[in-house]
């Protein structure tokens, strides 16, 4: 899979791209990530300006339609595989595991990271990107959201996680709507806190039963909404692909 990230701050991704799981996936050719600085498409070259004040007044600045549309079209044309265009925005469809799994089926994804107050509306009208939000809170730009999407998607790609790390049993993965059971490792005791005896018993049936019960209790306590009898579909955003 290839990601193309359009951003005013490509350097934000430097540390992220060298973290082990992603770095290994890149080295193994399972994923490719290309960054594109929107300022490289600025008309006004001395100041590389790509933003301006909103018509009608209001706070802040908007990213202008011309450099953005030109940039996205040029980036899309850099590779034969057309990119699935995703625009990060607080107004987007909420990212969840189901959407991450859908994104993981794409061969190429372009992540459009805005800043300031976002993009001129004509960027959305012309390019028709899918709009995605990572949650009901306000960020200063799309880059953190883009990294979140890359993180959630790359771990789902075949071969990225070894069998022992399979994402299949993760909370939320592939319809699994239960929170994970508590986990323990060495030492067996720390400051008087011990490991549940069942986990040391070697009785795999009893361990499975205990873990299932722990998941159920935790889910009821923290995320009753995940239980089948309470689940509601995450309605697709109006401009979301079916
Ligand atoms: N995905 C996602 C997001 C964002 C987000 C994403 C892109 C941009 C570009 C600019 N801003 C700042 C801004 C713009 C408009 N209203 C308020 C703040 C962004 C925020 N905030 N919260 C999320 N879950």
Automatic annotation (TrEMBL):
Keywords: Cytoplasm, Methyltransferase, S-adenosyl-L-methionine, Transferase, tRNA processing. It is found in: Cytoplasm. Residues 1-228 form the tRNA methyltransferase TRMD/TRM10-type domain. One of its GO terms (molecular function) is tRNA (guanine(37)-N1)-methyltransferase activity. Residues 221-242 are annotated as: Disordered. NCBIfam families: PRK00026.1, trmD. Belongs to the RNA methyltransferase TrmD family. Homodimer. This is tRNA (guanine-N(1)-)-methyltransferase.
